[in-house]
Amino acid sequence: ARLNAAKKAFFDDQEELEKIKTNGIGNTDLDRHYVASINNSIQSEQSECKIMRSKNERLEVLLLGLRQGCIRLYDRLLPYYSALMGEGEPELNDIDSTNAKKAAKDTEKIMKATE
Questions:
Q1: How far apart are CA 76 and CA 99, in angstroms?
Q2: pLDDT tens across 41-75, in order?
Q3: How far apart are the first and last CA of the chain?
Q4: 89 — alpha (psi -120 to 50), left (phi > 0) or beta?
Q5: In 3D, which of 84, 71, 77, 78 has the Cα closest to residue 110?
Q6: Which pLDDT tens digit goes with each residue over 76-85?
Q7: CB 42, CB 17: distance < 8 Å
Q8: Following CA atoms 48, 2, 65, 58 in sequence, which dihedral angle do they give, to the nearest 10 degrees?
Q9: Is the confidence at residue 97, as pLDDT, over 60?
Q10: How many of the other CB atoms lie within 10 Å of CB of 70?
Q11: How many CB atoms lie within 10 A of CB 103?
C-alpha cells in the first residue's frame, strides 16, 4: 500500500514537473525553485522505493530459507512421524508449488507436523 502510494506520488510529481517545464508559471526564479522542489520530491520517492524493494528482497530470501529449512526438517522427521504421532503421514499439497498462498499453507503444515 505504501509502495503504491509512493509510486503514484512519484508519477504525479513527474507529470507536474513536465507541465511546469512546458508551460512555466510566470516568474523565472519561482519556476527554478518550484522545479528544484519537485526534483527533490522525485528523488526522495525514488530512494524510498529502493529501500522498500531491498526490504522486500531480504524478506523474500528469509522466507525462502525458512521454507527450505522446514521442508528439510519434514523430510528428516517423516520416517518417525507415524511412530511419534500414532497417525499416518500428514497430507500436504505439492511442496514445490509456485503458488505463494499454497506454499505458505504447506509450510505452516510442515512446521506443525515437525513440532
A1: 24
A2: 999 999 999 999 999 999 999 988 988 888 888 77
A3: 34
A4: beta
A5: 71
A6: 877 776 666 6
A7: yes
A8: 0
A9: no
A10: 20
A11: 18
Identify which has the larger pLDDT, 70 or 29: 70
Judge whether residue 94 has pLDDT over 60: no
Q: What would the grid cell of residue 29 be?
A: 526564479
Q: What is the CA radius of gyration of the chain?
A: 26
Burial 33-60 (b: 16+ CB within 10 A, else e): ebbeebeebbeebeebeeeeeeeeeeee
Element (H, E) at 24: none
DSSP assigned state of 100: H
